[in-house]
Amino acid sequence: MMEQNKESTVARLQAAKHESGKSYSQLAEETGLTNVYVAQLLRRQAQLKPDTAPLLLAALPDLPEDHVREMMRAPLRSYDPNLIQDPTVYRLNEAVMHFGESIKEIINEEFGDGIMSAIDFYCSVDKIKGVDGKDRVVVTFDGKYLPHSEQKSEHMVSRTRPSEKQ
């Protein structure tokens, strides 16, 4: 039921964007968000924050009020496993898989043993001209560095609490 509701909500959100004639980058400029985050909002993959709602409504005045309220609820972040069959998604995944080990090694070399957050994370897609004059896609992943913790038993909350008497 929730997935059906999500599908119909996303269809209405996408229709409002389409009817506006605006691109994700235009909407991003009007709202102060990244273009990828706007796309995530309109796919119900991100939560619309109260301070941003008026900006989004100004940019997309045809958004139904009930959909705006729905967008302000925490979303069910999911994806269709068949999405990998789309050539763009497949190539993006392939690029991350191909370069992932080297990216991980450089993160560890530059920062230490840790990872890039996908929660405290910004992403954008930009179009630029290459040195050869051809269009190029620039995908920027901007994530907070999170170091792995050394697992000392004295830091485990469950071990430092006094045991409850039975």
TrEMBL record:
Region feature Disordered, mapped onto this chain: 1-25
Domain Cyanate lyase C-terminal: 78-151
GO MF term list: cyanate hydratase activity; DNA binding
Keyword line: Lyase
Catalytic activity: cyanate + hydrogencarbonate + 3 H(+) = NH4(+) + 2 CO2
Catalytic site: 91, 94, 117
Domain (HTH cro/C1-type): residue spans on this chain: 12-68
SUPFAM superfamilies found in the cross-reference section: Cyanase C-terminal domain (SSF55234), lambda repressor-like DNA-binding domains (SSF47413)
InterPro entries: Cro/C1-type_HTH (IPR001387), Cyanase (IPR008076), Cyanate_lyase_C (IPR003712), Cyanate_lyase_C_sf (IPR036581), Lambda_DNA-bd_dom_sf (IPR010982)
EC number: 4.2.1.104
Pfam families on file: Cyanate_lyase
Gene3D superfamilies in the record: Cyanate lyase, C-terminal domain, lambda repressor-like DNA-binding domains
Family: Belongs to the cyanase family.
Biological function: Catalyzes the reaction of cyanate with bicarbonate to produce ammonia and carbon dioxide.
HAMAP family, per the entry: Cyanate_hydrat
Protein's name according to its UniProt entry: Cyanate hydratase
Organism listed in the record: Phaseolus coccineus
